[in-house]
Design goal:
heterodimer; A: alpha+beta; 12 helices; 7% strand; B: mainly alpha; MetI-like fold; flat
Chain lengths: 396, 375
Amino acid sequence: MAAENAGRLAPPRTFFLNDPVIRGYFYQGLLIAIVLGLFFWLGANAIQNLTAQGKSLGFEFLKNTAGFDVSFSLIPYDRASSYLDVFYVGLLNTLLVSLISIFLATILGFFLGIARLSTNWLVAKVAAVYVEVTRNIPLLLQLFIWYFAVLKVMPAVKQSHSLGDVIFINQRGVFIPSPIFDDKFVWVLVALVLAIVAVAMLVVWARRRLAATGQRFPVFLTSVAILVILPGAVWLLSGTNVGLDIPKLGGFNFKGGIDLPPELLALIFGLTIYTATFIGEIVRSGIQAVSKGQTEAAAALGLKENDRLRLVIVPQAMRVIIPPLTSEYLSLTKNSSLGAAIAFPELVSIFEGTALNQAGRAIEIVGMTMAVYLTFSLLTSLIMNIYNSRVALVER
Amino acid sequence: MTDSSYAFVQTETAERLPPPGRTTGVIFWLRNNLFSSLSNTILTIVVGLFLLWLVPLLYQFLIGHAVFSGTADDCRVADVGACWIFIANRINFITYGFYPQTEYWRPNVVFWVGLVLVVPLVWSKAPFKIANAALFFILYPIAAFVLLSGGVFGLEQIPTEKWGGLMVTLILSVVGVVGSFPIGVVLALGRRSNLPIVKTFSILFIELWRAVPLITVLFMVSVMLPLFMPEGVTIDKLLRALVGVTVFYGAYMAEVVRGGLQALPRGQYEAASALGLNYWKSMTFIILPQALKYVIPGIVGTLISLVKDTSLVSIIGIFDLLNAIQSAGSDSAWSTPTKSITGYAFAIGIFFVLCFSLSRYSVYMENRLNTGHKR
């Protein structure tokens, strides 16, 4: 009797509308229909509007002359340049600001994260207040403060503040000397490259020796010595002259040297100080995530303080720190678009702003700008995924 | 038997060690927390000197040398601090923008009614939660919109171009906070769905929004969206910005909520199915309440970013708090040395109060909802 029921039960008969599989198909079909319908509707509207305005879609406009000036550019640019050049100028400026700010924010952020964990009460509290205040103020407001309230109120060109008559600070930015290299300087660079190669080989050799014999080699000191002595000796022997191009007041502005415009500085200051607070919190949580037992276990194994940090604590903290850190870098890059508010010529400001206003190609320009940030984002997640698969905890 | 290999054997009682030093009191605390080592002492002195320089400077600027009454001329003296009379003089503009002065009672009513409705909603011990929520989330927005824009019941119509200042910042923040949350939950559920197409669309939607900066989104809604609308249809600029901010932060919220959904043990999903709950019931009663509790810090963090990022609408020309302060300062009658920094200090104060109270509230909620499952 029981044997008759032991076979597999037939699925309960349900009304087909209640079958989850059929319902799934239905809902997904509905979703596709809605999304496609929406796109068709939007597309039809766009075509209608464009024909009404006598415009067409296409990227030919990129070859047209832009005809406006850009205040800061890494590549040659003038009024006769095309919209494509505007795009490149903006892209390069975005990358420049992002890279500098990422570098500075990382240093400040690690410093802050460690300071918040300091055993020194005063240091920890000051760092905490700094973090709490800075991260609760909008970045845009901070940029305005740096730009309008700090850098724009610097004295006029003729009354510049000067630091030792080589660095000048005024309304138009900071002017710093630039080095001038003569022909022989190439050899110093070659020597520097050779020194770096030598250090890399030394590190590999020292690691192998440590693994084979257990003997340590003072890698750090030797590396510093190689890096200083080799290029330094070449410098002296070749008789290279490195001059400084010191900015000089000529006419209404400084000539020579490197001109750091206030827009650039304000954006770098703002991004660095704002992002550093978030990096600081990431570093703090990463260090706190490594349990105390790890330190104690490392000490029990007889590792020195330095090795404990280097071999046990930091690698584990980094596993927690790196993923949110990269997304912080990405959001810094996206936040660099706020430069538009203080007229720093980055991608959004000159391409999505000025170029769009002139050329009126809203769909193409907004699309291109978004594609750039999308590429940054996808690249970041790609690198992140590779890193994650390398350092992920290998469990049983 | 004596073992001569021992070089030294203690034969008498050792001298008593002194008692351990104080482990309480000011001296001990100072020594332990500020002067525990040489490097710590140096650090303490350096930071202390920095504070001795900074704190009086801030005090002199904000209070000591600040101008609290008088005219613009009082702010034009040498070594002047914050010019608070500038704020006092322009407070109406900073609060309401170009909203007509005779109609100020309307935003005021909206603000106070909103406050009266929100306080019992966020205070966990207050009764009538459901009725309260229905009032706040359904009736209040409609009533507030009607009251603010007018045009009916004999109220003068006031277009949104005239709205401005703190009022717009608060509207953007509240609508963004209230609107982005359900969008985020739906997207997160979509991303965790078993239905492949729903999942794909959710992922695409979330990742596309998260990949681009908010400014480009705002540019998109302000210059590109009109091209995609039927001829003759124009959507209000403020509304477009509102939708942009809300959907943008909806995508961020989705990722936070997804984190909570993933952190929940599988057993909870299975137990809900075993009880015979269907998808929506198991989500509403079993999964989401626990998942959301896990991610309160993340949710509030996103909300704080939202409140801060409402300031970006000033770039597309909407008169929010920051824009109002910025343009109030360009009035030549107030060309005093410290007026712009005073305006910024005021804006800092407002944003800090908004964001910091949100983060404190998150800590309170976390503690209240902590039912001891946390490891």
